[in-house]
Every structure is written in C-alpha cells, then in structure tokens.
Amino acid sequence: MKITLYMKGLDCANCAEKIRAASEKIPFVKTAEMNFMAKKLSLEIADGSDEAVIREVKKITAELEPDVEVVSSEQADSHNHDEDSSDLKRDLAKIITSVIIFIIGLVFHDNAYSLWIFLAAYFIVGLDVLITAGKNIIKGRPFDECFLMTAATVGAFCIGEYHEGVVVMILYQLGEMFQSLAVRRSRKSISSLMDIRPDVANVKHGDTTEQTAPEFVKVGDIIVIKAGEKIPLDCTIISGKTTVDTSALTGESVPREATEGDSLMSGCVNLTGLIEARVEKEFGESTVSKILELVENASAKKAKSEQFITRFARWYTPCVVIAAMLLAVIPSLINGFNSQYIYNALNFLVVSCPCALVISVPLSFFGGIGGASARGILIKGGIAMEQLAECGTVVFDKTGTLTDGSFEVTRIISEKHSEEQLLSLAAVAEQASTHPAAVAVMRKFSGTPAKAEITEIAGRGVSANADGKTILAGNRLLLEEQGVANLPEIQSAGTLIYVSENGIYAGVIEISDSIKPDAEKTIAELKKTGIKTVMLTGDRKSAAEITAEKLGLDQWHAELLPDGKVAIIEQLIETSPEKKKTVFVGDGINDAPVLMRADAGVAMGGIGSDAAIEAADAVIMTDEPSKLIEAIKISRKTKGIVIQNIVFSLAVKAAVLVLSALGLATMWAAVFADVGVCLIAVANAMRARKI
Questions:
Q1: How far is CA 305 from CA 35, 392, 471, in A?
Q2: What separation in angstroms does the CA of 337 have from each of 330, 384, 665, 670?
Q3: Which of 55, 309, 619, 687 has the fewest CB atoms within 10 Å, i.e. the most exposed one?
C-alpha cells in the first residue's frame, strides 16, 4: 500500500533528503519519495503497517527537523499559507534587530562591553542554528550546515574576530530567508495551477439540483454548470450552448464555442451560458485530477543532475570538515600554534556549506516545470526534462498527431456528372454507413439523399438501389468485382471512394485526414535545430509518402503495427549519434508501448487516450505539434541554468577553498562563496520560471 504524508514547514532541500533517506530505512517501508516542492513524503509500505510507519516518520522528522510537523494529506488541504508569511516576517525581524545591535557594537567596538553587544546580536540571529547544531551533535549527526555555521562563527569569537562571527551568522540567515522565499514563490507558481480544482458540482435530481463534492458524483449523472463556474468533471453537453475558457489547462487565451454533443474537460471555466451535461468520468479519472497528480508528482522524479548533487553533498561536507581540521592542526604541529591557521580552517568551514547546489538545482527544474505547465505542457519531472533537452531525434505518429484525425472530402473527380451530382450519388449509397469516410461524404453533401435499398459489402463498400438505379460506392476492388470498366489509377494521400451508376464508372471522391496547420512549421523548426524527424504510421505507404513529402520529414515508415513501431524506435535509439535521445510523439491507445519504449514519450493530451497520457513523460494539452518546440526549448534552457549553477557554485567554492588553504582568503570571501553564491544560484534558478 502507499501512504502520503505532508511535511508542514519543510523549507530545506538538504533536510528533506535526510528525512527521505532515514524514512526509507524504516522496517516495512519498501520505497520513499520526497516531493520537496509539494512538501509531501510518499511511502510504499507493507499492508497494515501504516500506523507504525507514521509514528517512526514523525520521530525521525522531530529529530532531524523539529520545526517540521508531519500531518496527513487530508490535514494538509486545510494548511494555512499565512503561516509561511508570518515565518518570513519573524526571520526578517530577527535579522534587522541583530543588524541594528551589530552596528551599535561597531560604534562602541573599543569599549570593554563591545563583546557583550556582539554576543547579543549573535544570539538573536543565530540561537536556533546553535540549538539545532547542538542537538545534531548529541545525536551523532554533526555534518550539516548548522554545524558548519556554528563551528565557523564560534571559532571566530574564540580568536577575537567578533564582528566577523556576527556577520557570517547574519548573512547565513539572510541567505536562508531568501532561499525560503524563492522556494515559496516557486511553489506558488505551481499552486496557482491548483486553482483549477473545482469545489462543487451541481447534480440534477428531477427538477432540483444538489451541490455535491466532485469526488462523489457518478458517471452518467446530469450536472448543471452556470456561467462563471468551473467545469467539475469531464462531461458531454446535453442541453444548452456556451463559450469555454480552457486557458488554465492549455495556456490558450482564446475561448472556444461549445454546444450539444461537445465534450468538456474538467478544470475549464464556463463563461457565458447555462448548460446541462452528462458526466463521462469519475473525478479520480478526470482531466483535472490527472493534471493535478502529474504536476504534484513532477518534482519527485529527480533528474540525473539532482541525483548527482544529492550524492555529492552527502560526501562533500564531511570531507571538507576533515580537511578544515587538518588545515588547523598540521601547520600548528609543524610551525607551532598560530591563530591564522585556525582562521584559515574557519574559512574552510564557511565555504563548505552545500546550500547553493542542494537548493538551486531542484529549484531550476521545478521552475521549468512550472513555466511549461503555464503553456499547456505538462512535463513529468526533471528526468523527462533532461531527456527532452538532449533530444536528437523526434518520431511522430501520423493520425491525430501530425494530422487532425478527422476525415473530410478533399477532392472530387467526376467523369460525366457535376461534382454536386457525383456527391449526391455517393450520399445515396453512404447515408446509412457509420464509416469515417461515409460520414465525411454526408457532411460534405448539403441536400437530402433519396431513399434506397442499401447492401453493405464487407471490406469493399456499399451497393444501393434507388429510383431504378444501381449505385456502387467503395474501393476500387468493389467496382472491379462488379464488372465496372475503365477505372483510372489515382495517386492519393487519402482514401478513395470509387462511384459507379448502373455499371458505368462515374468518378472518385477523395477523403483525407488533413495535416494540422502548424505541423509543417514544427518539422521545419526541429530540422533547423539539428533534430532528425521521423514518422511512423499504420496507414498505407502511398498516404504516408505524400504526407511525409508535404511536411519535409527526414524518414518515414508505413503499414506498421504497434510492435513494428517499437522495433523501429529501438533501432533509432541504438543508432542515435552522440548519445542523443529519441523522443516519440503520439496520441492513440496503440501508441502507449512506443511512448514507454522511447527515451521520452510525449502525448497529445487534449484528445489523447488515457493510456497514452499515462505512458508519456510529457503531455501537450492543446494537441498542437508546435508545442513540442516550446517543450524542448524550455527543457534546454532549464538544463542550461542547472549546469550554470553547478559550474559556478563549484568553481567559486573550489577557488576560495584553495585560497583559504593558502591563507590568502578572508572570511568575507568565504561568506561570499557560501551565502553570495547561494543567492546568485537561487536567483539564476528563478529564471527558469519565466521562459
């Protein structure tokens, strides 16, 4: 079974990882995933062990982070976000008070009691750090940022550098405050998406309506949606017409018209009219529920960069602490005691805090995920983002992905009648059929077809008798078998309906699945960035070839079953140059195996099947292929920001560590290498939210 616990007050990424790692070692726990941005710990546990596991998690959290409260996910829904702002105000008040007292200490630094002034400033801003460090030392877990700051600042006081000890603690707390502010702003950018969650559904019972929580509404129930209300569940309009705002889901600002028979996605807003609709999916399976689940779980799926930083921080801090001790002891043993050696070691401790890396990397990925979701692109975590960023080949399904998936009459070739007369003959034969090609013919025909006796010929087409005439409408083979002569060979990307009247060939109607308006632009943009484009389809070779030529694809394969598509994807992955990733874009249920096999799968989510959305690593809500370009650009920019932060943080820290070891760096340089680098890295990470 799986349980989810909410970590109220969790603002430290490093501490979050410690809680996760410790929770995973609890008996009966199989796996533990920490979603730092959502403050949620998800545990897969043995059945019946939930109460014991929750008690252990609370105990671990109390030891590692006393200020964090573990509550159930139900209690989390009632969490008051005003507490976050009050925490920030309290931290800011401590820092300002400490700064004022510190300035007073500088004014009276020559007086004997200046030490007490500096100590007052120090304890006001750093008491919580000292207490946490003391508790962790007692518990045998000293290597964290609280210990580093305590050792460095207490050491500064011991060698008479009072003002530096206070400044280091003030700047550390200031950095922590800005870090928390950045995390909370990123959380808000995602939580704004959570506003799409509907509060109630108006369920119709006879002539009355009852307000019901969406979770309790059943498939088939009739709901009433008034103007201005959110659409609570996926449904189909049975009465009324309106305009619908889909921007919360798709990022598109232009409302669309909706009338009887149209499907509506939950989370959209009904703008103008009163409508009645039949519920098609339970809340747990609805669009809004799936989106919320995707976004909430996105940050729990760590990219390779995040995994590297987690492992790096685990070893980096203890190694630097040991190096600092050696830096203080060895020169003293060789040359005799000198406070400068202690000072150099203290610099080492200040520099060694891994905050800049631990927080800026996940914050960058989360910012990118938030920026993409605002554009109707849901990316399922840092892993998917990295795969998209490293994309070298994009493989498209054809129908519903590059084409609209809705058939229409695109050409009429008449032998002896007008186009309208040929269409009328075809309509007489096709009027009773539900085949997509027949539906397209009836949609194109504006009149009312004559009544006829219709016989369907499986795999061939239909035969109709009306007004003494025999009409055939179907594929070429149907007319050949019925003895119709002089049938022309016609090249077509679509389906051809051959029509005859009383045994004489009358003409051909071409039914095509039209190419999406932005498909050609998408292919051109991808090729411009050096990405190879491939199309896989189960359609006929002739249709695939014409579509591929129109779009300018590099490669195409037709008449494929799902296993054939998987085989080609595997071949493309194996032959991909420079370890570039292969991305597959599809929408149908038959695409699910291919979406899972590709390095990254992208589902066209607006009309895509549930199976495709579940299997994919990213979902495009608008069904526009051009959104893939945005997804790749956002992913590349986000990964670029991550690399910038890693390289910048490590380079500055390495330089200051070397200078500290040589006695050439002051504690001010060490403070910059810690707090300054952290603030710069966090500010850089925040850019990922605005792409």
A1: 16, 19, 67
A2: 10, 54, 19, 22
A3: 55
- Whether the CB-CB separation of 103 and 167 falls below 8 Å is answered with no
Nearest Cα to 57, choosing from 114, 132, 112, 7? 7
| pLDDT tens column, 84-96 | 566 778 888 999 9
Q: What pLDDT, in 10s, does the model give residues 635-681?
A: 999 999 989 988 898 888 888 888 888 888 887 788 788 778 878 88
User: CA–CA separation, 389 vs 370, rounded Å?
Assistant: 16
Q: Closest by alpha carbon to 286, among 177, 197, 369, 363?
A: 197
Mind listing the domains of the chain with CATH numbers?
2-79 (3.30.70.100), 84-190+328-354+638-689 (no CATH), 197-288 (2.70.150.10), 404-515 (3.40.1110.10)
Matching residue, tokens 């040929």: 422
For 554-580, the DSSP string reads SEEE-S--HHHHHHHHHHHHHH-GGG-
Nearest to residue 648, comparing CAs of 357, 393, 364? 357
> Can you give the pTM of this predicted structure?
0.68
Q: Check if the beta carbon of residue 24 is closer than 8 Å to that of residue 31.
A: yes
List, by residue number, the catalytic residues: 397
Where is 77: in which H helix or E strand?
none
Assign 450 to helix, strand or coil: coil
